[in-house]
Amino acid sequence: MEKIKKIILFGALSLLNNCSEPIKAIFDINQLVNANIEKANQVLGKPEKSEKFTQQPCGKDNCFLNVYLNNQLEIIFLNDKVGRITFTPKNKIKFKENSIEYLGLKPLKPTTETKNVLRWDNFYNLQEVAVFKMNNDYIDYYLIRVTF
């Protein structure tokens, strides 16, 4: 009987040890959907850099690029609204479906999945969320296009 208790205890401890901790969001993308510059600054703090932006997707439109979170997060504001977000994490984040939880999103099956890209189209209130990796098992960057 004592041997059975030890086996059960060992099995239970093994299961607990293999459980992963819940992912804690680095920032909540939902707070930035349809946000203007002032709202983004309230959520993320003062930008480390802010400049007029004329490259894609802006062209001649009224665009600004703000950089936040120790140069990890770039937001392009189009006509004073969040248009595109690029997040390049400094910490190693595994390239897998649930990696979007770091953005405060619940994981769903991607619309497109390749060796180097996970992409979700029309995802929650976003036009697109894409996760990219290059030559290893870790994310290089996230690209988020906000729906206008």
Summary of the model, kept short:
The chain has helices spanning 2-18, 37-44, and strands at residues 49-52, 63-68, 73-78, 81-87, 112-113, 117-123, 126-132, 141-146. It is α+β, with helices and mostly antiparallel strands and 148 residues long. The chain has a single domain, classed as protein yfey like fold (Sandwich).
Fold and architecture overview:
This protein is α+β, with helices and mostly antiparallel strands. It has a single domain (about 25-145), classed as protein yfey like fold. It has two helices and eight strands, in the order H-H-E-E-E-E-E-E-E-E. The chain has an eight-stranded antiparallel sheet with strand order 1-2-3-4-8-7-6-5, with helices on one face.
- How many structurally independent domains? 1
Total strands: the figure is 8
Can you tell me the CATH architecture? Sandwich
Number of helices: 2
Sheet bearing the most strands, described?
8 strands, antiparallel
As residue ranges, the low-confidence spans are: 1-19
The whole-angstrom Rg is 20 Å
Instruction: Give the overall shape, derived from the CA principal axes.
Output: globular
The CATH topology corresponds to protein yfey like fold
Quick one: CATH class? Mainly Beta
Instruction: Provide the structure class.
Output: alpha+beta
User: Could you tell me the strand content as a percent range?
Assistant: 25-35%
Mean pLDDT: 83
Report the span from N to C terminus. 66 Å
**Share of helical residues:** 10-25%
SSE pattern, N- to C-terminal: HHEEEEEEEE
Strands of the biggest beta sheet: in what spatial order? 1-2-3-4-8-7-6-5
